[in-house]
Amino acid sequence: MSVEVVAPAGARFFFALWLPTEVAHSLHTVAGGVVGRCGGRLMREDALHMTLAFLGEIPERRLEELQALAATVSLPQVKVRLDRLGFWNHNHVLWAGSKNALPEIAALADKLQAVMLKAGFLTEVKPFAPHVTMLRKLLHPGALPDLAPVEWTAAEFVLAKSWRSDRGSTYETVAHWPLQEVVAQV
């Protein structure tokens, strides 16, 4: 699905899996408990996502081409399970991820990155670290709480843009494409 996009100056684009409302609410509640104890900047509940491919700034003249290319990518639906919290000290981020590798999600991200690399929207393929950023600017989280597992089947991927404002980063979904249902073999 193609949408006309007018990007604010300095907007950055990325492909992502957006979290369903109930999953986002659950993670936001957990993050709210951590921020209440340790500080940091809580991500907005409606902005929680898992980035598949970060593209950076894209010239407006190439946005239509980008969306047309994304529409040609056939990717399967994937089950997503988030069951652990982690903290990256280098950028002060609290994130939710999975205790076990997520090979189907990594394969989805790798395929999408490969297509974008070939078309010149990326200059390199970066290792995929499946996570959902929940808090930023967290100096020291202390002991992290256990995360009750949350799961969903991702049925679509989105092209989103972000830009900085006086309230932090703002996210907007530009377009979305369905992921293909996996038919069980009998």
UniProtKB/TrEMBL annotation:
Annotated motif HXTX 2, positions: 131-134
Active site: H49, H131
Motif HXTX 1, residue range(s) on this chain: 49-52
InterPro entries, sorted: Cyclic_Pdiesterase, Phosphoesterase_HXTX, RNA_CPDase
Single GO MF descriptor: 2',3'-cyclic-nucleotide 3'-phosphodiesterase activity
Superkingdom: Bacteria
Residue stretches making up the Phosphoesterase HXTX domain: 18-95
Listed EC numbers: 3.1.4.58
Catalytic reactions on record: a 3'-end 2',3'-cyclophospho-ribonucleotide-RNA + H2O = a 3'-end 2'-phospho-ribonucleotide-RNA + H(+)
Sorted UniProt keywords: Hydrolase
Keyword presence, Ribosomal protein: no
Family under the similarity heading: Belongs to the 2H phosphoesterase superfamily. ThpR family.
Function: Hydrolyzes RNA 2',3'-cyclic phosphodiester to an RNA 2'-phosphomonoester.
UniProt-recorded name of the protein: RNA 2',3'-cyclic phosphodiesterase
Organism: Candidatus Proximibacter danicus
Origin organism lineage: Bacteria, Pseudomonadati, Pseudomonadota, Betaproteobacteria, Candidatus Proximibacter
Gene of this entry: thpR
